[in-house]
Amino acid sequence: MSSLLPPLTDGPAGRPALRFGARSLTYGELASAAGAVAGGLARARRVAVWATPALETAVAVTGALLAGVTVVPLNPRSGGKELGHILTDSAPDLVLAAPGEELPAPLDELPRVDVDPAAGGTFPDDRARDPEDPALIVYTSGTTGPPKGAVLPRRAVAATLDALAEAWRWTGDDVLVHGLPLFHVHGLVLGVLGPLRRGGSVRHLGRFTTEGVARELNDGATMLFGVPTMYHRIAEALPGDPELAGALAGARLLVSGSAALPVHDLERIAAATGRRVIERYGMTETLMLCSSRWTPPAPRPGVRADGEPRAGTVGVPLPGVELRLVEEDGTPIAALDGEGVGEIQVRGPNLFTEYLNRPDATAAAFTADGWFRTGDMAVRDADGCVRIVGRRATDLIKSGGYKIGAGEIENALLEHPGVREAAVTGEPDADLGERIVAWVVPADPQSPPGLEELAGHVAGRLAPHKRPRVLHHLDSLPRNDMGKIMKRALSGG
Ligand code: MCA
Ligand code: AMP
């Protein structure tokens, strides 16, 4: 039994913990503010957090976790349909939010507790908590239906953060900068709880900008976390921005995750800064699975450093993670030959326990002998490095690092009166990785709904990042003899 965030109780109180814009908290101040949150959650079992990229979110999550209360982070841009589903499914006792935040109608029925980062409270001792207790429920899209709540126990959060610390030599001396959203694993677990578990600090940009990254890295930050879209924007900005190049060159560790980092962007950043971005691979359900290792930079210029990450691979399994590749018929692939393609299956202390209220989906996600099926297809090179080559499901789209199910967008489009039939695919996009494409048979061919109309419809019901970016009108959708839509025919594949 041990605390999830030991530096809060045991570390020096004056150390900086969190900084969001002009507002910051030391460990002592955070312990006090989190204690105040915890004190207000006496009878709560599970709480929602209105996860704006703000100090209040970090304080709310810290306080709830230390009080042993499960956190359901909410995307503050969620549309009514998505928010309604998450609230009904997770049934939180109350919602924690920053004072003054206007909460939308689906939250009207829920008691609201405002979070005050300046409040003083007694810090709760969480050392006796069961490691199997759920820490977080994070909603993640599947191929069909509404998002599922992945239940992440305290044990998984602790295991993944400690494995990353080992792989990256991540310590309390590190200062992390990022502009990731705080309602997903990347920004919240790695990007906020990560530094707090080490006794280090995090500076959040509020929203990602290359200027913000340059400013913080030039002002003492040592690590940057981002999704490939952010590194793409950095690569684009570098030629005209010597300050950014200098800032990246001085960083200890640049990490990309949530989607594949294009080799072209990695190489452009390496050429302009001398630094190779480290790639790591994970999932909401499994937390972190693989990463390149960090070693101190080589003393001579021109010599590759950073644990020699190899472009196009996500490194090797993290400490404690068991990983195998499995053929379609279930046969494990033993060869490290860079050729045998199989599904990545994993086991380890970093895994979730279940999808909330979805025993069917939970059972389907695991093999009979307890391996989690990631749905990602990969090969392993001779040195053991994992190279992800694709996904089993074509109905999952990764856009800007967000996983988006084609089915949920199709369902939302079908709720528009101007849409008779709809299909959604992803197509390559230099900035977003993939962009969402809607194929629509209009109810009235004389006045088909336009892209702006349908994008607004989806953004309002689900979330803006799920909106289609391209729209095609069709007379009919291509279907096979069984009536199933042939998506490959749509995207020309
Ligand atoms: C545009 N907007 C709209 C509409 N169109 N709002 C309402 N209705 C519309 N029709 C708004 C957006 O809300 C936003 O507002 C602005 O227009 C621009 O949005 P957009 O172009 O979509 O995005 P972006 O600002 O270009 O963002 C790119 C991004 C973002 C910053 C890279 O995609 C991002 O933060 N990605 C991170 C995803 C992530 O963290 N994934 C981790 C999950 P405004 O201008 O006000 O903002 S994966 C994970 O956790 C696993 C474990 C892992 O491995 O990491
Ligand atoms: P999510 O469910 O949003 O947590 O997304 C998890 C998925 O993101 C994985 O199953 C992968 O398909 C993808 N992913 C995450 N990191 C990487 C990476 N470094 N390279 C390629 N794909 C990744």
Specify the structural class: alpha/beta
Low-confidence runs: 302-306
Outline, from the CA principal axes? globular
Helix percent reads: 25-40%
Lateral arrangement of strands in the main beta sheet: 2-1-10-9-11-12-13-14-15
Distance between the termini: 52 Å
Please give the count of helices.
Answer: 14
Bound molecules: methylmalonyl-coenzyme A, adenosine monophosphate
| Arithmetic mean of pLDDT | 94
Describe this structure as you would to a colleague.
With 493 residues, the chain is α/β, with parallel strands linked by helices. The protein has 14 helices and 26 strands. A 9-stranded mixed sheet has the order 2-1-10-9-11-12-13-14-15, with helices on both faces. Strand 16 (322-326) and strand 17 form a beta hairpin. Helix 8 (228-237) crosses helix 10. The protein is globular and about 65 Å long. It starts with 6 loop residues before the first helix and ends with a helix. Bound molecules: methylmalonyl-coenzyme A (MCA) and adenosine monophosphate.
Can you give me a brief rundown of this structure?
With 493 residues, the protein is of the alpha/beta class. The chain has helices at residues 7-10, 27-39, 55-66, 80-90, 154-168, 185-198, 210-217, 228-237, 242-249, 263-273, 359-365, 406-414, 451-461, 487-490; strands at 16-20, 23-26, 46-50, 70-74, 94-97, 112-114, 134-140, 148-153, 175-178, 201-204, 223-226, 253-256, 278-283, 287-291, 316-317, 322-326, 332-333, 342-347, 354-355, 372-380, 386-391, 396-399, 402-405, 419-429, 433-442, 470-473.
